[in-house]
Every structure is written in structure tokens, then in C-alpha cells.
Amino acid sequence: MSELATDREIDRSKMQVSDEVAIEISNMNKWYGTFHVLRDIDLTVYRGERIVIAGPSGSGKSTLIRCINRLEEHQKGRIVVDGTELSSDLKNIDKIRSEVGMCFQHFNLFPHLTILENCTLAPIWVRKVPRKEAEATAMHFLEKVKIPDQAHKYPGMLSGGQQQRVAIARSLCMKPRIMLFDEPTSALDPEMIKEVLDTMIELAEEGMTMLCVTHEMGFARQVANRVIFMDQGQIVEQNEPEEFFNNPKSPRTQLFLSQILGH
Amino acid sequence: MSDTHANTVAYVRETMLPQVAPPASSTGPVGWARENLFSGWFNTVVTVISLAIIAWILIGIVPWILSPTWGATSLSECREILTAAGSVGEHGTSGACWGVIRERWVQLLFGFYPSDLYWRPILSFVLMGVALAPVLFADRVPSQLIWFSAAFPFIFPWLLWGGTIWGPLAVAAGFVIGYYVFRILGAATSNLIGLVVGVLAAVIWWLFLSGYVVDALASVLPLGIEEVPSRNFGGFMLSITIGVVAIACSLPLGIVLALGRQSDLMIVKYICIGFIEFIRGVPLITLLFVASTLLNIFMPPGTNFDIILRVLIMVTLFAAAYMAEVVRGGLAALPKGQYEGADSLGLDYWQAQRLVIMPQALKISIPGIVSTFIGVFKDTTLVSIIGLLDPLGLSNAIRADSNWNGIVWELYGFIAVVFFIFCFSMSRYSMYLERKLRTGHK
Ligand SMILES: Nc1ncnc2c1ncn2[C@@H]1O[C@H](COP(=O)(O)OP(=O)(O)OP(=O)(O)O)[C@@H](O)[C@H]1O
Ligand SMILES: [Mg+2]
């Protein structure tokens, strides 16, 4: 897992972190029933950042990024996304969700719709884009993820890697300003992981703000500007990738890295 | 595309090997029979025994069916014809007495509907076919036809019951009123308030206001066709009417109940659960008795609440409770990821339900939904118990006729065959639909 995500040189010209805040999480806590999943999370994400979240299974990584678009509700603290605070106001939630794209481990494509329909559904119904225009946008992004020729197939007819790239294209069709990834490559065979990572790298090269939960440490090393290590619902350590991998401070991080890097 | 492939796929087949035809003995009828009927001594024995049983049944039934009694006008005449033809078995004459079907089939179809108005039920059922086409075969007919389907629920009862044209128009107006109240209030306040007030407005219109308006309009402009009272309705016309209305109304109602049962709003949830469990807990026949007798007690005196309408409501509610559970099964089978996928794209609750969840949940539930439809259609025969003349009710009346006293198999057989045709078509349609909606690769 320590191998590189790509052999090519990464174009960093547009990967710039601005000082505009994209997401601000302060003192956020979440419980499942009585189980305290997330404890006192403080995290500020600036526009253009590529953050990789790592940590052992059950540490609350998924829960954290799912709180950002309200797939899970937090009970204490504040989450502000693009200047809008997440509260129980449904209008705010739908607005934030349409600005924040998300890719899941199991793709969650809609199996009863074709690839093209998957990509045009939300633009047409949420953004009220005319169908023709939505289809043109969808084809543009499908070309970007290199599967325009599958547009009229159904998700069930595609390989896992292709499905995940469609899922990325589907999110991009909403022109999101932030992308969340929850272990996008964990359900894939090794040869498909690469094609999905390639897509994600291209996205990063265009300056997209990204939060990725992933075990692909090569991707973290090459693409991320910050790696966050979580354990037992807390952010234990965060640092630039070089520092994070070569100089982990906390013993828990050291243990985790020695396990995941397998030496 | 090709770049990624070159990197990821080690071997891509470019030419196909030439195909060789399979040996003749494994194809065609001989091959089929060999593979399916005679593949081993056990299967061969089973095949032979089955063929013998089938032959024995056919030998018993076919001569009975082919009996030359089409022209008879009474059971005794049938017996004479059969005796003359020499087909007398050990239990007296053996052969069907088809005269009863020839004489009464029109009645079995239309009940006591005035015979000079038969064109009305015939036309309405033909139109029903037209209205169903865009629903059943959406991909094969022009999509504008759906407007006719929307208008049909108002045309259909008017054609059958007749009366002034203003009646169905007033009912339609109720929907329009409700819709506009919902739109205007919904935009000004919240969707929920709009919905509640809209429904209330429509109900108030239907119950209290529309009557006067219809009377006024009818006296100014008396457009209408001859009225046919409900007691003249009967036969398959009645079964199909009850069946189709109950089927058409129970599906949407069932969907709403299934969603309500999953709702986060406690009141909505418990009302739905209570309704579903209550209706499923009582036999349909009790509901029909309530419809035929008890309901009148609760109605203000003097109100004339049509018996067929009451039955329709009860059968619909009954079917909807079952439908709700079938749909809930489909909803439960959907992975949570589908909801999350829809949510993460910013679709709101109703959009997610309509565009993502329901199409899939209903597709999963097709076999259950169609089973419920078939059950409802067959259950319409229960209305004979409260005195409506559906085919079974009519068959009792026919058997009471001194000419046909003692006839059993021919009547019930005919009714069974007609029911079978309808139910079997529904079952075939559901399989067609399942095949059509299959999108994975299998
Ligand atoms: N819906 C739920 N109800 C109760 N507990 C839950 C729920 N979802 C997750 N949990 C618990 O919360 C903790 C954090 O879960 P989460 O899915 O965020 O972990 P994770 O870091 O993403 O793990 P993984 O790497 O395995 O995906 C786990 O202990 C899990 O058992
Ligand atoms: Mg997870």
C-alpha cells in the first residue's frame, strides 16, 4: 500500500491552497445512541486543500465526513460549509448537499437509470438545468473520467472501477466546490484502483477541495497537502504528508503507520 | 479509454473463434425431449406416468366439453339431446349443457343493465384499454395518450352510471381546486400545510358545495345521458369495475401508507400502522357487511350513498393495506446506499422517493403487487354475499330458474375460465414487466 498512486509527475500549478475557508468544524461531537463516536473535532479546511483522513477501522472517519453533508447529524458543536451553518433547516441541508459532492465505497449509483440519467438526474431536478444542457455537461464529465462510450448502459453492466468513475462524474455534474470521498477504492480490485486514483488525481490537479478517507497511502503522499490521523473518534495528529509519514509524533500514529505500511 | 485499457487489461480477445453447429440430436424437438423428458430411467418413468394421467383426464373431459347442447333452452332439453346422441354414461347422461351459457352469457357480462345501453359499458371498457395503454406499455404508445388516461377516471363512471355531465366535471373540479390551494398555500407557507388545506378544500367542495353547483348547472344546461341505477349493475362488468377501481386506487394509497409507516412523524406513522394492522386483521367480508348495512347508520338520514361506491371504498381500503405491506417489503430490500446517494446529490425527500427509491422498490415488489391485484380481483366475487349481482350472484339466480335448476359445472366453469383469463394475463404482464425492467447483466 505504500507504493505510489501514479508514476507520472503531478502537475501542481493549480493545486493552490487559498486562505478562504471552505469548511469549518468547531468543537463537534456526535453520539450514536450512547456511543460517543466523534469527540471535540476541530477542523478548518481551506479552499484548494486535499486532505486525506486515515485511521484504524471504527475510528469515526466515515462518520466525520458524513457529518459534513448531513448524512449523519451531529449533536454538539458547529459545522459551517461554504458559509452556511448545518442546522436542522432542511433548505440549508439541501443547499449544502448540492454544493458538496460525495463518493461512496459502494458507489451508490442508481441501478434503474442509465449512466447518463444517473449523471443528469440531480442537475435537472435540483438545479433545474434544461435536459439538453444537463446531458452535454454529463457527457463532458464522462469524457473526463474516460467512459463516454458507456453513457447508455446501466450501472450493473459496468466494472467496479468504471462504476466508481461514473459516481465521481455524477457528483461533478452538480459542479460541487468540495468533494468528499469515503474509501472510494476499498471495494475495488487492485487493477481498478489505479484508474479511480488517476481520476481523483486529475481532479486534485484542477484545484478541487477534497476530503478523502482512504487507505491509499501513496495517494496521500503524492496528492494530499495534509494528512489527518483519527483514532477513537478524535483527531490525534495532522501534518503535511512528508512529516506525517517520516516523523509521526504520537505513538498511536506510529503504530498505525507501522501496521498499514507493513514493515 | 484505450490508454487505461492498455495499462489495466493484460489480454484482450480481438478475434472470435469460428462457431461449430451443435450435433443435431441435441437440438430441435427430439433433442429437447431427450434432454428434458427422457434423461435417465427415473425421468422416463415419471414422463410416462404423467402422460398417462394427462390422457386419462383429457379422455374424461373432452367429450363432456364437446357435447352438442349449444341450442338447448333448458336442462331437460339438454338431457334429451344427449340421450338422442347416445352419450349416456353410467351416471345418466354425460355431457355439458351449454345452452345455459348461450342463453345467459349476455347477462353474465352485463347483469341487468338495460340492453339498449350496452354500448356504454362496451365503449367504456374499450376506452379503458386505451387509457391503460400508456400506463402498461409506456414505451410503445405515444406519450400524449397519458392525458386521456388522466381524464378517463371521470369519463368511466359517467358512461356507466350516466346522468348529467356536470357530475364528473364537478368531481374533477375538486381536484383542480385542491391542487391550486396546495400550490398557492404551499408556496406561501409550507408544503405540509398546503397539502392538508388543499385536501380539506377539495373534500369540502365535494361533500357540501359541488351538489348545489351541479344542480344549478344541470337546470341551466341539462346535458347528460340516461341514468342507470346501481341495482342494474351486475356480471363481469361489475367485477371488472370493482376490480379495476380497487386496483388503480389501492396502489397509490398503498405507497402512501408504506411511506407513512416509515415516516419520522410519530402521528403519521402510528395512524398508518393502525390502519394497516386493523384492515389486515379483519376479513374482507366483514368490511363488506359494514359497507352494506352499518355505514348507513352513521350517515346522516336521507343521504343516498351508492352501494357500489361503498363497496368500492371498502375493497380499495382492504387492498391498500396489503399493498402497503408489499411496497414496504420492496422499500426494506433497497440498500441504505440508495437513500444516501440520493441525499448526497441534494434531492429532497419527495424527489428522492419519486425518482430513486420508488421506481426500484416497486420493481422489486412487482410479483407481490400483482399477486395482490389478482387476489383483489378474485375477492370481488364476495360482493355476491351482500346481494350484488356479480357473476357468482347471477349464477345463483340462474340456477334458481326452473329451466336451469340443477346446472352447476357449466356456469361455474365458464365463470372460472373468464376469471382465469384475466388473472393469467395479469400474471403474464408482470413477468413481461420484470423482464423489461431488468437492467443488470445476467
Ligand atoms: N448507524 C450506526 N449506529 C451505531 N453505531 C455506528 C453506526 N455507524 C457507525 N457506528 C459505529 O461508529 C464507529 C465509527 O464508525 P465509522 O464508520 O465512522 O468508522 P470508520 O473509521 O469509517 O471505519 P472503517 O474504516 O471500518 O470504515 C464504529 O465503532 C461503528 O461501529
Ligand atoms: Mg468507513
Question: What do you see in this structure?
Answer:
The complex is a heterodimer of chains A (263) and B (442). With 263 residues, chain A is of the alpha/beta class. Helix content of chain A is 36%, strand content 24%. Chain A contains nine helices and ten strands. Chain A has a six-stranded mixed sheet, sandwiched between helices. In chain A, helix 4 crosses helix 5 and helix 5 runs parallel beside helix 6. The longest helix of chain A has 16 residues. Chain A is globular and about 55 Å long. Chain B is mainly alpha-helical. Chain B is built from 17 helices and four strands. Chain B has a two-stranded antiparallel sheet. In chain B, helix 12 crosses helix 13. The longest helix of chain B is centred in the C-terminal third of the chain and has 31 residues. In chain B, 27% of the residues are buried. The complex binds adenosine-5'-triphosphate and magnesium ion.
Overview features:
heterodimer; A: alpha/beta; six-stranded mixed beta sheet; four-stranded antiparallel beta sheet; B: 442 residues; mainly alpha; two-stranded antiparallel ribbon; 17 helices; disordered N terminus; binds adenosine-5'-triphosphate; binds magnesium ion
What is the percent of helical residues of chain A? 25-40%
Major beta sheet, strand line-up of chain B: 1-2
Instruction: Determine the mean pLDDT of chain B.
Output: 87
Overall, the morphology of chain B is globular
Give the N-to-C terminal Cα separation of chain B: 25 Å
Percent helix among the residues of chain B? over 70%
Strand count of chain B: 4
Gyration radius of chain B, in Å: 28 Å
Shape of chain A: globular
Q: Radius of gyration of chain A over alpha carbons? A: 18 Å
Q: What would you call the structural class of chain A?
A: alpha/beta
Order of helices and strands of chain A: EEEHEEHEHHHEHEHEEHH
Taking the sheet with the most strands of chain B, its summary is:
2 strands, antiparallel
N-to-C order of helices and strands of chain B: HHHHEEHHHEHHEHHHHHHHH
Number of strands of chain A: 10
